[in-house]
Amino acid sequence: MRRPRIWAFWRRLQYALGFLTFLTVLFTTSYFVYLYAPATCFDGVQNGIESGKDCGGSCVRICAFSVTPPKVVWAESFKIVDGQYNAVAYIENSNTVAASPAMSYTFRLVENGSVIAERKGITILPPNSVYPVFEGRIFTADDREPTETTIEIEPIDMWLPASVGRDQFKTLETSLLSADSRPRLNVQVENTQLTEARDVEVVATIFDNAGKPLTASQTKIDVFGPRSKKDIVFTWPNSIAKTVRSCDVPSDIVLVLDRSGSMAADGGDPPEPLESAKTAAVNFLKQIKTNDLVGFLSYATNPSSPIEQSLTSNIVEIEKTIKTTKMGEDGIQYTNMGEAFSSALNELTSERHREDARKVIIFLTDGDVTRPVNPQTGLTDRDYASTYAKNEAEKAKTANVTIYTIGFGEYFNGEDEEVKRDVELIKDLASEPALYFEAPNVAQLLEVYKKIAGNICETGATRIEIIPKTSANFAPLR
């Protein structure tokens, strides 16, 4: 019996393996040539190991369905001049890595349900924090004022990994200067990372002590080097002194006191209620800040000329001036509110006013405006005198003066038409209705002055928030 040859068996096995290898190569080549469509992150089709169309798996893009959508924290617009606004919104991206290089949005400024201005834009949205969206110089139709500001964010299709968020930048110093003339916020910011940042958008938002946004400005940095610091400047075209009521912003205050004939109606020596009004005004001086300046004038048929006390920090001198104020002795003392406003404004726009300080008028009257006389008739005309007073007060408001008005005396306890007429006038003279106060007696007047002092300078710090954002750390598409 013949024994099988081992070498022949191995030769047949090698032939078989070679044939199988040939078939495998032939099949694989045919598949890739005729049947295989390679996976790509840019073909608009979910293929390969992608989690969605062109996202997930081996693609850099992050699928939108795996991302938490951005959330609007707040949106607000800030008046620059009549009919022109800056709009700002804070947007929260709670995703720790996912960010968008192109978030589309639409700001809408709305007045009582009607859209009066609209602005579309595209911005970056870094990860893991809250970021501002800023649009400047938005013009409203017919100079109308918005009652509401909204922002609509379009669904984001492109989400990419981003290596760094807000912690890339650190604010080192802030300094607000010239708040009432040429507002300027000087800021020093540091890039804490080892990589440079390009096209950095930086928004400065100022909040009051309750967290309400008051105003905002934006600047841009083309190139921000690694581990470097930059001094940047934010500006505003008009005064923000009366908007930012921080005690860090000093005040230039003119106290205006009525000494018309009716301020001696209660009699006495010294006459009342004038003496009580003077006492309350002196008490007000104890509540102002050491960096404030105060001026004082009184008025009747005409205001004191020159002003009894120009702006000064010398409280002793101001007290002395107020205490020595007395009724006029040259005939009947009428009430000329308009000229009193004019004199107060002249002082607040004089060389004594500081460009870093807000301008304030605190105007006390017991009503019954009767001067100036109507120049066409030469007679007392309350309508003419009222209009004149409103016009002079409006000039002060236009000059960024905050006006507080006080209706003082038992007269304001009345309910007849004459009282209502005076109340409406004195409310109109104030910068806004909330800055009008009534004080029928001296105890209430003391409380009113206390409220005004607190309103001029808010307790608690104003917060200035500086937020830079850049697209430099987005992962590139490949």
Model description:
The chain has 478 residues and is an alpha+beta fold. It has helices spanning 6-35, 274-285, 315-323, 337-348, 382-398, 417-429, 442-456, and strands spanning 71-81, 84-93, 98-111, 114-125, 129-139, 148-153, 160-161, 169-177, 184-191, 197-207, 213-224, 228-235, 251-258, 293-299, 309-312, 358-365, 401-408, 436-439, 463-469. A 6-stranded mixed sheet has the order 15-14-13-16-17-18, sandwiched between helices. The longest helix has 30 residues, at 6-35. The radius of gyration is 36 Å and the shape is elongated. The two termini are 70 Å apart. The mean pLDDT is 88.
Largest sheet: 6 strands, mixed
Mean pLDDT: 88
CA-CA gap between termini: 70 Å
How is the largest sheet built, in terms of strand order?
Answer: 15-14-13-16-17-18
- Oligomerization state: single chain
Order of helices and strands: HEEEEEEEEEEEEEHEEHHEHEHEHE
Structural class label: alpha+beta
Rounded to an integer in angstroms, the radius of gyration calculated over CA atoms is 36 Å
What is the strand tally? 19
Helical percentage: 10-25%
- Count the helices. How many? 7
Proportion in β-strands: 25-35%
Using brief descriptors, characterize the structure shown.
alpha+beta; 7 helices; 478 residues; 4-stranded antiparallel beta sheet; 6-stranded mixed beta sheet
SSE layout:
Layout: H1 6-35, E1 71-81, E2 84-93, E3 98-111, E4 114-125, E5 129-139, E6 148-153, E7 160-161, E8 169-177, E9 184-191, E10 197-207, E11 213-224, E12 228-235, E13 251-258, H2 274-285, E14 293-299, E15 309-312, H3 315-323, H4 337-348, E16 358-365, H5 382-398, E17 401-408, H6 417-429, E18 436-439, H7 442-456, E19 463-469
Parallel strand pairs: 13-14, 13-16, 16-17, 17-18
Antiparallel strand pairs: 1-2, 2-5, 3-4, 3-6, 3-7, 8-9, 9-12, 10-11, 10-19, 14-15
